[in-house]
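pasting for the record
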Amino acid sequence: MSIKIKNKLIINLAVWFLVFALIAVILLFFLSKNFVIISLIVFVSLLVLFLITIRSIYKIMLDIKNYKKIIKKMNVEKQKNLTELNIAKQIQSSMLPSIFPNFTIFKEIEIYAVMMPARQVGGDFYDFFLIDKNRLAFVIADVSGKGIYAAFFMIIAKTLIKNQVHADHEPSTILEKVNNQLCKNNNLSMFLTAFLGILDLKTGEIIFSNAGHTRPAMKKFGKKFKILKLKQNFVIAGINNLKFQSEKIFLKTGDIIFFYTDGLTEINNSKNKLWGKKRFLTALNSIDTNKNSIKGLVESAKNKAFAFAGEKSQSDDMTILAIRFNGNSSDEF
């Protein structure tokens, strides 16, 4: 409240006080024999009431002033937190591949991925990179929880996995070593599920290890998407010195493999109905993969999930990574 408004309010109260005091004195003059004594009593009473009112108003003004200071401070802190979260979001986004290969040159595969956090930052991540000219490593993972803690854990896990892939090309061994590293000083008891694969670009062979992650959907050329019945190891960072197993699958020309985190199939609508794997597969199979690129497939699947959810806000991080194997060789990426 400005000083001008405060002064105006006090002047108005003083004027009204004098008006009521004058009216009271006039009435008492005509109605009372002890005019002077009663007038003094009334005047003093009104004066006391006036002072109490002024004091109350002054206190209210101070409270309003303090409240505005608190609100201003809260807004500054909120803006600071939002700025820090936006910076964290940018850092996290910059760690995920966002530039996909030029497939007019590199023809062995098409690959595309998206990550959509439920908050500004999330715990899901994906990555892919060449180990050598004939082998592509890829990973999709889901850290327990959401928000800033999950994001930090995600950064550590992603870095460890990538570094270990370059040191050791066996997926089960890679996950074992990463698991032991993440189990150390894991005071928040966080963990992650992950699907780590190494694709041979010449033969279509994928050697992989699945650490408790959702099983991918696969579409053989000319057929429909089906959920692969693959083994699942235990999650990463859950138990120290855990042993993981590797498996193999083979892609032929035109085959598509579709990886995702559970945030995709567990998305809810306003009626609290789960999208679920049945609707997910129906949606995937309704997309014409002959007319759509892998990017088109991923974006269409994402849009169908959000269309099902409607106005219901996203409650979990959502990540998709899809690969189409074309079976043609090239020396360039």
